[in-house]
């Protein structure tokens, strides 16, 4: 999957943790790994503390690994754009020769089956053009079926951007972590930086400067002892609210279960096809393995507590696969009906939790407590936004950028947005 010929390795701490580093990162998902990369590049000594035995093994492992510039706001679009620039040149920019992120730029195709959705799509494309995103195509139904003959006659319009696509998010997270572990090989790194990873270690407390709850955070208490640092950053995904509460601050995260149907082998899937989305229901699939991943983001799913193991529910698969279901993939492409009638080959479900914030945008930068920062709350976009978000979180931490200029700062005014179908 990754790095043929790469001689570098992840630096895992066996035994006692270092007593002091420059930055402690709580959580070794893609946000924590990306933070370690940018902090090590900026010359900081970093310790990433991850409760699980492996990095990128909770929410990040469940992701679809898709990225798109087709967003409804210029700020998130900028985060993804920065990421895609890095991903397309990842081996050179990280010093990891041969590191393969499995990037497939096959596009994102949002399909409208009603006039209301088609009108919303036209408005969105006009908005995106205003952000400078000029390569999103608006395509009528006949042209959609000429280009993708498997699609249904009921599609009246689609919006498509060919440069959007998919990435192997585990390879990306491991790439960030491996590059951070070997920071002397990052071409533009400042001297002295590096990262170590403490795996199977839980952060359960914060060390405060002086008595009381308002003193600066100067370290963490873990299941393997105490570590001191000038700065600590919470990148605990759906657990960020719980970790913040230990420090006495509110990190508003609403964990919400999302599942992914994996069909490892399905000859009906055109492996060159885009991520194909039903604007009416949010159901979508994308080519993966020798089959596909298929998903649906149901806005009715209740918010829950963060989970260590996220359960799956077979009814989720039926709602996508049974042509009688209102959210069936067969609404988009008739071949899905054939697949159901023939009998769907071997499939399984994976699940994680979206880490929704009140406005479905990330939380980056300092908290109200001196020495404590966040990089979290990506609300389902944490793979595609990982590079842009982590780079900004680190720039804020080292004073390279000003908090007042950061649109994703903790104390921004919250403006509720329409639900994103993904
Ligand atoms: C089904 C699904 C599909 C998705 N598809 C996409 C997609 O196509 N594109 C995209 O961009 N995003 C996608 N996402 C969203 C993306 O996966 C997340 O936004 C991203 O993985 C969040 O990364 P993270 O590092 O913040 O969280 P996580 O990956 O959850 O990492 C947080 C880590 O913190 C650790 N931790 C928590 N508490 C502690 C503690 N006290 N001490 C030590 N460690 C702790 C956890 O064990 C965990 O490993 C999807 C998500 C799901 C669920």
Write the layout of secondary structure elements.
Blueprint: E1 20-26, H1 30-41, E2 45-50, H2 59-62, E3 66-67, H3 74-87, H4 90-94, E4 108-112, H5 115-130, E5 137-140, H6 141-147, E6 157-161, E7 165-166, H7 169-181, E8 194-199, E9 203-208, E10 217-222, E11 225-234, H8 240-247, E12 254-263, E13 275-278, E14 284-288, E15 291-295, H9 314-321, H10 335-342, E16 348-356, E17 363-366, E18 372-376, H11 386-397
Parallel strand pairs: 1-2, 1-11, 2-8, 4-13, 11-18
Antiparallel strand pairs: 3-7, 4-6, 5-6, 9-10, 10-11, 12-15, 12-16, 13-14, 14-15, 17-18
Helix pairs in contact: 1-7, 1-11, 3-11
Flavin-adenine dinucleotide is lined by residues 26-32, 49-52, 57-60, 62-66, 202-203, 235-239, 243, 258-260, 352, 354, 376, 378, 380-384.
